[in-house]
Please model this.
Amino acid sequence: MNLYLNSMRKNFLFVFLLLLTAVSCDSHIDRELARTTKNVMETARKQMIAMAGTLKEGECPRSYENGKLVTSNIYWWCSGFYPGSMWYVYEYTASDEILSLARKYTEILEPLKDVTTDHDIGFQLFCSYGNGFRLTGDEKYLEVLRQGAHSLSSRFNPVVGSIRSWDFKSNLWDFPVIIDNMMNLELIAWVAGQDNDDRLRDIALKHADTAMKNHFRSDFSTWHLVDYNPLTGEIRRKQTVQGYSDDSRWARGQSWALYGFTMMYRMTGKTAYLDLAEKVASLLIPILPEDGIPYWDYDSPKIPDDVRDASSAAIMASALVELSDYLPARKDEFLAVARKQIMTLASPEYLAEPGTNGHFLLKHSVGNVNANSEVDVPLTYADYYFLEALMRFEKKNKK
Model:
């Protein structure tokens, strides 16, 4: 009981200090954040240019392990994050060299628009082509996004009310749906808005509604995976495949949930999504470590001697910056947490020096501990959401 009370006191103090920071926010804090953003963007510019010089034709960066760059082809689920990161750096720096590279590494992904065997088309195309279209207005990019959205929507099962996630390990799952899949809805919902396509809009809404109903526990933490009977829609089992246990709070999954439902509120205006996003945020903020960077699973028994996950923090920070726009009463609180996470990620503990870390930006992310895959390494999606969070803050600072 004493340990529990001590933990509660520490969590209360953490939130109190964040709120105090928010209340005392002034131009000094804004200037500090602006300097940090400038430094990170310049580091990112150098790292991305150097990274491009090491890649062979058709390769995408994946990670850096044991002193070696790990690459993938365009079909790896993370292939859109490298060009997506370049688009954010271009948006900040207006560098012609970065623009050229962003176009190159975006356009090699064009074949993905016809893929119907992968639920991550949203990640791959919207982070790359979506940002590219936003910043250039290139109509060719819009056509890729349109086709990609329709290809992704082909995985929707109206009986289940969800887009299928993985096709592999059919001996384990009949129709698996992972919380990560919320992120892929942005492509479908955005194209639905562009084209006034009711079919696509209904698919995005139905998937989000089904996830809201079936993925969340009573405390508003989320399971990683829900498996369905594709013929009846009945739930077969709920798991946390990449977490400590089925009932644990796998950090990146919680961040996906926070981001996904915040984004779906933006795309649809449905208040139930906003309410859920707020409840997820209310769960996560008090259980964060003091520096704002989650351990890979909030329930790992090895804490505090376990690995942190920079990617979970970056995703959460970006989501909180957006969520602050929709909940004015909690704006200062959410921005203070996000700012804390960003400043920690921008510290030497996490931010790589130019020329190091395999030319990735952030250190100390986690892919899948259970598979001993990509543990305490740089990952492209950590870099992407970190840069996105910085750009979202940057736009607030300029208002």
